[in-house]
Amino acid sequence: MRYLLLALSLLSAAVSARPAPDFSLSSLPDAEQLSQLKGKVVYLDFWASWCKPCRKSFPFMNQLQQEYGPKGLVVLAVNLDAEPQLAEQFLSDHPARFAVQFDPKGRIASEYELIGMPSSYLIDAAGQIRYSHQGFFADNAARYEAEVQELLSEIPSTSNLGQ
Questions:
Q1: Helix, coil or strand: residue 1
Q2: What pTM value is reported for the model?
Q3: Per-residue model confidence as pLDDT tens digits over 144-153
Q4: Contact at 8 Å (CB) between 43 and 120?
Q5: For the Thioredoxin domain, which residue ranges apply (predicted)?
């Protein structure tokens, strides 16, 4: 078990920057495609109602959205349940204060070559995947948050525009 946890923690790492696969959004009023979120940092998370670690990740994602949303972060969670009522029950027990997208056929997940849940991808303001995480470990939350802060620090502030 200890070796499994060690192996999983190694799966949480920086990746060679690559473009984030684009997909249609139905959960955000001001963007119809993921690519329209360029200029913002996106914490993209894949989850399902049966995923026990997903229950632990929701409070963390709520905190990220609350604290960093005004600074340019968008938390977007993609649900992979085939039956919507399973996701709805999960959300009634674990409220999301961030955008939730539904992908019951797994099309978005296949674009991201998902290998387990939860899986998250941190996308920079240029639309590049910079970090990915397989699983959610509360002990790593400070590191995940530091990665968000790093990418947010790369967004040019409006006070610097035109200088």
A1: coil
A2: 0.87
A3: 999 999 999 9
A4: yes
A5: 14-153
Contact 133, 9 (CB under 8 A): no
Cα 2 from Cα 156, distance rounded (Å): 42
Residue 34's nearest CA partner among 135, 112, 92 is 112
Helix or strand run (H / E) with residue 19: strand 13-19
pLDDT-derived band of residue 88, with 50, 70 and 90 as boundaries? very high
CA 89 to chain centre: 21
- If you search the block for the tokens 């005004």, which residue do you land on? 70
- 47-154 has which fold? Glutaredoxin (3.40.30)
* β-bridge partners, 47: 79
Contact 41, 123 (CB under 8 A): yes
Q: What is the DSSP letter of 80?
A: -
pLDDT digits (tens, 9 = 90+) for 44-79: 999 999 999 999 999 999 999 999 999 999 999 999
Give me the residue spans of the domains in the chain. 47-154
